[in-house]
Amino acid sequence: MEQAVTAELKPIKLEKARFLAELQTLPAEQWSRHGMEQVTFLIAANPGQPPGPIAKVASGGELSRLMLALKLVLAGQSGIGTLIFDEIDAGVGGATAAAIGERLHRLALNVQVLAVTHSPQVAASADAHLRIGKQTRNGQTATHATLLAQTERKEEIARMLAGDTITDAARAAAASLLEPEK
Length: 182
Fold this sequence. Notes:
By secondary structure, the protein is of the alpha+beta class. The chain has a domain at 2-127: 3-Layer(aba) Sandwich (Rossmann fold), CATH 3.40.50. 38% of the residues lie in helices and 24% in strands. It has 7 helices and 7 strands; from the N terminus they run αβββααβαβαββαα. The chain has helices spanning 2-9, 54-57, 60-74, 94-107, 120-124, 150-162, 168-178; strands at residues 18-25, 37-44, 52-53, 82-86, 112-116, 130-137, 140-147. The protein has a 3-stranded antiparallel sheet. Strand 4 (82-86), helix 4 and strand 5 (112-116) form a beta-alpha-beta unit. Helix 3 (60-74) runs parallel beside helix 4.
C-alpha cells in the first residue's frame, strides 16, 4: 500500500513525499472485531523531514491530495458509495490539475465522485458538469445546481479559462480539454 500511494503522489505535486503506514499491535484487552492493530498514516512531505502523522504534518492542500491517493488505492476495498472533494486542486494548475482530474475520473469508475472545483482541467475530466449558483429572492438566498448540456459545458469551461469575457481562443482551449470525452 505504501508503494502504491507513493506512486500516486508523484503526479499530483507531491513527488518528494514519502508515505508510510505504521502498524502498532494493541494490548490484548483492546482487540476487537476491527483487529489487533492500530494503523497510523505518516508522511514526510519533503526530503530530510522525519515522517509524522498526516493530521499534524500535512497542509490542507497536501491532505486533500493524500486523501485522493489513498482513496484511489483503496477504492475497491471500501463500502463507501460517494466521495466529495472540495477544491482538491487549490493552489495547483496545469499538468498537476490535469493529473488530479485524471485520478478523480479513475476513482469514479468505482464510486460516485463529486468534486467542487475552479479548475477547467478537473472539470473537463468529469462525466457530468453541474454549475452551482446562488439567487436572492425576497431577501432569501438559495443555492442551486444546474446540469450542463455539452454545449453549455464547453462554454462554462471556456469561462473558467478566460473569466468574464469569453474569447474564441478560450472556446478552442475548452474544446481541446473536452476532446478526449470521458
